[in-house]
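User: quick one, sequence for these tokens?
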């Protein structure tokens, strides 16, 4: 009988479904929202903070919670016990982004009656995202589906790289991952910007997203600014975008003067290491090289913000 799965990570839920294994999912995290067909699954986690406040207030709550606990999320131990999964998928990269390995292990030690395997994902680069997709496919008995999926994703990525092979002008791109305090998007994002034809500033590929001084943004003076806040939709980021306007010298930035400020869906694309990370490359390609690429994400995945 195929293993039953609880996914406590939005990205792993997407991976399982992209591999054609959605029927084996028996539980999800409160954040797992794609594909929509997983919404009926039992929710095995809750959030300890209020997400409906400003980014500065969220940051304050997170720091207060993490000072006394392992994570800003709580695992529903009784529900997991009742569901009795064969496999639980979580992550170790960030205590803020999703249910941590420590949370899951603490819960399992108390309640699971049978041997349950915990699979932890922790990608920092595009290659590692692809690696996690294949390793998860291998573990779940879907190795061939994994290879097919990765071939499709790689082909889409390489198509963009090939089309930009002889493009010499590479605009300098700053991607904002949090508004207050200001953070630049790290991990895989700088690499995605490079694939899409830009030169990333303020963060390095494979390194965690850094806090940055607003003056650093002014000094870098990027040609393009993309706000893709972690966990925020476009509409949610629109509520916070004026935080950037208050930075001294903002109006003099090249990106602002040339109307090259964009808001993107950080929740579903930029911050989620799932198969849709290639969608993120396509979104970036549309923004950075609009004359070469039109994939159809404008309005849903990103929009230009006139300031």
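Assistant:
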């Amino acid at each position: 009988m195929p293993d039953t799965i609880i996914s406590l990570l939005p990205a792993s839920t997407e991976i399982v479904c992209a591999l054609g294994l959605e029927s084996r999912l028996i539980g999800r995290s409160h954040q797992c929202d794609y594909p929509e067909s997983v919404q009926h699954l039992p929710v095995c986690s809750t959030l300890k903070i209020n997400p409906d406040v400003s980014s500065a207030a969220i940051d304050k709550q997170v720091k207060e919670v993490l000072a006394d606990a392992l994570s800003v999320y709580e695992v529903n131990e009784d529900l997991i016990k009742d569901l009795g999964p064969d496999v639980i998928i979580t992550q170790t990269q960030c205590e803020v982004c999703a249910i941590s390995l420590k949370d899951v292990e603490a819960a399992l030690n108390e309640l699971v009656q049978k041997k349950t395997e915990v699979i932890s994902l922790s990608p920092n680069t595009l290659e590692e995202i692809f690696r996690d997709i294949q390793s998860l496919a291998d573990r779940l008995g879907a190795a061939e589906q994994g290879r097919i999926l990765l071939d499709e994703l790689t082909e889409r990525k390489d198509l963009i790289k090939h089309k930009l092979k002889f493009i010499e002008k590479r605009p300098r791109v700053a991607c904002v991952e949090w508004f207050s305090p200001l953070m630049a998007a790290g991990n895989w994002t700088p690499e995605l910007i490079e694939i899409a034809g830009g030169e990333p500033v303020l963060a390095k590929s494979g390194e965690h997203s850094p806090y940055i001084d607003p003056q650093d943004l002014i000094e870098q003076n990027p040609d393009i600014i993309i706000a893709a806040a972690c966990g925020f939709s476009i509409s949610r980021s629109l509520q916070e975008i004026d935080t950037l306007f208050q930075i001294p010298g903002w109006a003099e930035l090249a990106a602002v003067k040339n109307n090259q400020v964009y808001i993107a869906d950080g929740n579903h694309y930029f911050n989620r290491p799932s198969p849709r990370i290639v969608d993120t490359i396509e979104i970036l390609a549309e923004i950075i090289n609009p004359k070469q690429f039109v994939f159809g994400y404008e309005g849903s995945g990103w929009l230009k913000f006139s300031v």
